[in-house]
Design goal:
single chain; alpha+beta; six-stranded mixed β-barrel; 17% strand
Length: 468
Amino acid sequence: MKARDLGELVLRNLREALLRNSLTTLGIAVGVASLVAMLSLGVGLQELATKRLSNSGLFDTVIVMSKSGLRGFGRPTEPPRRTSAGSDQNSEQDHSPRVSPPLDDAAREALQKLPNVVEVYPQIRFPTEVRFAGKPYATMVAGIPDSARGNGAFDGVNGNFFSGDNADEAILQTEFAKDLSDKPSSLIGKDLVLRYAERQALGAQGAGASTSSNTENSDSGSGGFSVVPREKNLRIVGIVDTEPAAGFGGIGSGRVLIPLAVAETLRAAQLNDLRDAVRGANGKTTYASLTVRAKSPSQVEKIETAIKDMGFSTFSLLDATRNLRIFFTIFDSLLGIFGSLALAVSTLGIINTLVMAILERRREIGVLKALGAADRDVKQLFFAEAGVMGLMGGIFGVGMGWLIGRAVTFGTNVYLRRQDLPPAHVFSVPLWLIFWGIVFSVAVSLVAGLYPASRAARLNPVEALRYE
């Protein structure tokens, strides 16, 4: 049978039972719409999460920590015991882990020299007391590098970013700004006083030390320090909704953000200083963690490998996104399964429609076979009818799924605006989903038409012509 004749027969047969065929096509469209809507939800949520993480500027960063700083409490780091001869006892059987190098200025310089590294900076967070309008407020301060200027977390900042690396300025987190004033925006341009504890090595305070305790001070100066109260006046230049200084492994979230260069000059006592004092850091400045920024996210894995070879522990968002991709793959699979249930139900409608068409058109099938039509031609006719219904149902279904996604996104954004939250696009219909949605609809329709087409092809032409 020629393709033109086959097309004419298919269109004529579909027009003769227009209502029944339209309802069947609508059933397919509803099934495809549910499938597309659910998959577009999974794709939209994945794109939303990826976009938010990408805008945070953390995909190209690696957090570096000393392995010795990650050891749990109660796990002593004892040196190897020696015998009277001075040799290591059971040295051949000593399988204790190698001591991790300290995360100090030398390590910072070594990390800066690695290929494709843009900058290396410490994560500085310390507790403090802020005095504003004569009232004290306990909070956490965090240093922010100048490279965060283009960070997506500061896109909605009310006010301005820091005017320079060494500017005595501060950006307040919104919730903390509300603690200071009922109108947070009115704080911009005003001053506050930062009261903090400055760390000073004991050896640097020779004037306050007695001569009779020189040896004692010398020993203490090798790892001890004193705390001196200091104050710093800062000008409030902006207010930000998010907490971009929370970081990885950060102790508390920064609610008062200051330039990183200013935070380093303050020499504020941090929690890791107590650990260094107990272990004896020989007066060297060590860091709880360092942030390494790569030129691009594609270089992060190589940089991580190089840092681990140096004896440090690393973490990056790429490590977390691997698990995130696994989660969304499983999530999309479940959504696809549940969305396919409605499409599976619509296949029953296709089978019912075509079986009824066989009963109504038995005489027509007999005439076709009497005129020389082969079983293959009859099968092609019913397959073509099922395919056309699947194609039309797939096109309308994709459109319905897109409209459902737009409607849900609109309703979600209306709710978010009422809650003073930024809008979000939770549905996304990419081109590949449109293409495969239509292909899947046609494929399911052809499978559903397999039984009716085989049944029509097996009809005896003599009995079909005698059928009333």
